[in-house]
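Hi Y.,

Following your request, here is the sequence exactly as I used it, all 734 residues.
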Amino acid sequence: MRRELRPADGPKGSTPPGNLPLELNRFVGRADELAELTRALDAARLVTVTGAGGVGKSRFAARSAALAAKRLGCEAVRRVDLATVREPNLVEYALAAALELTDHTSRPRREVLLDHLGQRQLLLVIDGFEHLVDACALLVTELLGAAPGLRILAVGRRPLSVAGERVLPLAPLGTADAAELFADRAAALLPGFALDDGNRADVVEVCRRLDCLPLAVELAAGRLRALSPADLLGRLDDRFRLLTGAARGALPRHQTLRTAIGWSHELCTARERLLWARLSVFSGQFDLDAAEYMCSGDGLHAEAVLDVLSELIAQSVVIREEAGSVVRYRMLDTVRAYGADWLEASGDTARMRRRHRDWYMGLATWCELDWFSPRQAQVAAQIGAELPNLRAALEFCLTEPGETHLGQYLAGTLWFFWAGCGRLSEGRHWLERSVELDADSEDGDFARSRLKALWVLGYVAILQGDTVPALAALQECRDEAERVGDATAVAYVEHRRGCLALVTDDLPRAEELLRTALAGYREIGELNSSVLMGQVELAMAVAFRGDLAAAVELCEDVRLVCEDHGERWTLAYALYVLAYAEWTKGDLVRARQLLRECLVIGDTFDDLLGTVLTIELLALVTVTEGDAGEAALLQGAAGRIWPSVGLPLFGSAHYNAPHERCASDARAILGDTRFESFVAAGARLEPGEAVQRALGRDTASRPAAVPGPRAAHPAPETREPAASPTVQGGETTG
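Below is the corresponding structure, written out as C-alpha cells. Let me know if you'd prefer a different format.
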C-alpha cells in the first residue's frame, strides 16, 4: 500500500503520491539551501546532496523532494534507501521494491526498471548510495538516458561523478537554526521548554561545540531528560560517550554520533582511514602541502596523498574550501575527533604532533623572512589562516618535555604577526608562557630562542603600554645576551629599550639607545621591517625634540628602502611621521593623502595601533582644515579603539600633544556640549566604520593649504554628528 507524504508543517495534499517518510516533527531552517536545491532541480535532472554523517542530508532531501515534485510536474516521488544494501547486484532489486514493481518474468531487473520508468514523470530519491557508488553511477546513467521524464535526487557522502550531475554540498546548520532545533526537540521531551535568557547562552554554546550538526544537536537535546543545558555543556568533552541515545526506530547508523561518523569510517579503504587519522592532528584548515608533508610515509606514499584526500573529500569526511585562488581543507570537529581517537589507538599521536609542529615551525620561519618582501600582505593572510595550527604547535611545544626552546623560538619568530597584525594580546600570552618555563639548555640555539622570546615580549608589552613587565623582560634579555655574547639579541634589546624610552618621554635616552641599536644592526648586517621601524622610532624621537628636518630625512630613507623591498607595514609608520611634517608646514592636502595611505595599509594588516595613531593625527588635520565636528568625531572613534590596543597614546605627553591640540581647538569652536556629542557619535562607530569614514572623505574639496599649526581658529563648524542627533555626553576618551 502506497503512503503519501504529509509534511508536518506543510499544506495537506501539496505533494504527489510516493513513499517519502512522514515528517514526525518540525523541519527547522535550511531556507536558503531549499531555494538553492529548487534552482538546481530546475536546471539538472540529476542533483546530488552531499555532506558529512549527521548533517541532515536525508531529511533535507525528503523535504526538498516534497516541495519540488508537484511544481516539476512529477506524478510521484519515490525514495530508495540503499543503506542496508551491501551487494552491488542487489541495487536494482532495492529500486524495484521502492517503485513497488511486480514482475514474475525472468527478465533482468534493469530491463524491468527501464520499461517501467520509460514514459513516467517521476522524482526518484536515492539515499545512502556511497558504499555502492560504482553500481549506482552506472544504473543512474542508464536510467536517465532511457527515461526523459525521470529526475533523480541522490543523497550521499560523495558525488556519483557522472555526466550532468549537479552537486549541492550541505553544511551544518547556522547557530541560530541549530539552537531553534535544540529547543524544538527539547520541548517535545519537556513540555514548556523554551529558549530564554537563563538557558540561551548554554544552548548556543552546546550547538557550537557540536558543530551545529543536526544529528548531534538532536541527540544532545535528548539528554535534557537528565541534564540541564548548563550540565550538558559541562559534559561535552566526551561527546561520543555522552550522546549514546536515539529514538527507537531511527536508522541503526544514527543510534549515536559515533555510529554516524563511524559509518563513513567503515566505508573507507585502509589508506583513507590512515589519512583520516593523520589529518586529525590539524586544527582548523590545512593545505595540500602540509598534508603531503605530514601524512605521508608508513603506508601512504607522498604522491598518493592527493588521491586519497580527494576520496575523503568525495565522501564528505574532508571539506574543500576555496577563497579566491587558494584551496584549503578542513574537517568538522566531530569528524576530526573520531580520527584522533583512531590515531591515539594506533600509538602514532606523538609522532604526528611532532611532524605537525615541524611543518608549522618551518612555515613561521619562512614567513618571517617573507614579511620583508612584496609578499607581506599574503604572509599576513597566510599566518592568519594558519593560526589555529600555529596555536596547536605552540601548545605542543610548551607542554611537551624537552620542547620548550622550540616553543620560545616559534613564539618569538611570530613577532611580525603579533605586532604587525593586531595580535598583541595573544602574542603576549604565548610569549609569557614560553619564557616562564625553564630553558632546555643555556647554550647555542636553545639560548637564542629564549633571548628572542624575551625581546619580543618586551616589544609587545611596550606597544600595550605596559612598561614595567616590558622593562623586566628586556633587562633579563640584555643580561643574558651579554653573558653569552649574542650581538643580535643585544641590538634588539637596545632597540626596544629605546622604544620604551620614547613612549615614556625620555627623548634623549631614546635617541641614544636607538642610534646604538641601528649601529649594531649595521655591524651585524641585519635589515628587516623591525630594523626599519627602529629608524622610524628614531625619527619620532628627533621630531619630538624639535628637529623635524632630520626626522623627515630618516623617514624618506625608510620609504626608499621599503619601496625597494616591497615592504608596507613599516612604511605606514614612516608616512605617519611625514604626514605630521606636512601638517606643520600647512600642506593639509598632502598630509591627508599620506594618512589615507597609512589607513589603507593598517586596514590591510589589521594593525589597530597604526590605525588608531593615524586617526588621531587625521583628527588634527581635520580640525585645522576647519571641520571641528568631524575632528571630534574621529577622536571619539579613536577613543573606542584604544582599549583594544593598550594605554591610550602610550600615556606619553609627546604622543598626546597633537590629540590635546585637536581637542582644544575643536572644543573652542563647538563648545563643550556639541564637542562631547560629536565625540560620543564617533565612539559609536566600529573601527572598520571609522576607517571607511576617514577614507571616504573628499580631499579634493579641502583647501590646498592653510596657515600652519599656530594659526588662529578657523570659522566655527556648524554640522551635527552624522551618526546621531546631538547628545550630551561624557568626556573624550582619547
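The two ends are 76 Å apart (CA to CA).

Thanks again,
Q.
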